[in-house]
Design brief:
mainly beta, Tumour Suppressor Smad4, six-stranded antiparallel beta sheet
Length: 138
């Protein structure tokens, strides 16, 4: 198991449920986050579960299952990557975008990127989604 290079820390109960705990290690980049499109009766168990069979790779490293009727998170929502020694969040053309420290990145399927710093707060989609995380550099 690789040493984490960063973590996502849950700041809400919804985020804690998504991470199956208070923190989720980011061991390598790119680190992909998106919505789990299957319901709870279709086999989702762990945030980092490889849900595909055979040799195909999963679309995301962290799958988030939304329990509400409204969908705030896209199937492939954002990626955390490193460029020139700095972390960046790349919105993957999500419908509602990603909020980083109060700045909307993407939305309306436009995509976009922003540098990530230790302690930055990340909100997926809308503040109504409840999925609020803190980015922590290890």
């Amino acid at each position: 198991m690789a040493q984490p290079i960063a973590f996502l820390k849950a700041l809400t109960l919804e985020a804690q449920s998504a991470l199956h705990g208070h923190t989720f290690p980011i061991e390598e980049v790119p680190f992909r986050v998106g919505r789990e499109s299957r319901g709870p009766n279709e086999g989702w168990k762990k945030a980092n579960q490889d849900r595909r069979s055979g040799m195909s790779a999963p679309n995301n490293d962290l799958y988030i299952w939304e329990q509400s009727r409204e969908l705030y998170i896209s199937r492939e929502h954002f990626t955390i990557d490193k460029k020139d020694g700095e972390f960046y969040l790349f919105d993957k053309n999500s419908a509602l975008g990603t909020w980083v420290e109060g700045q909307l990145v993407g939305g309306k399927r436009t995509g976009g990127s922003v540098p990530l710093h230790d302690g930055d707060v990340i909100i997926l989609g809308s503040h109504l989604s409840g999925f609020v995380f803190k980015f922590v550099i290890a």
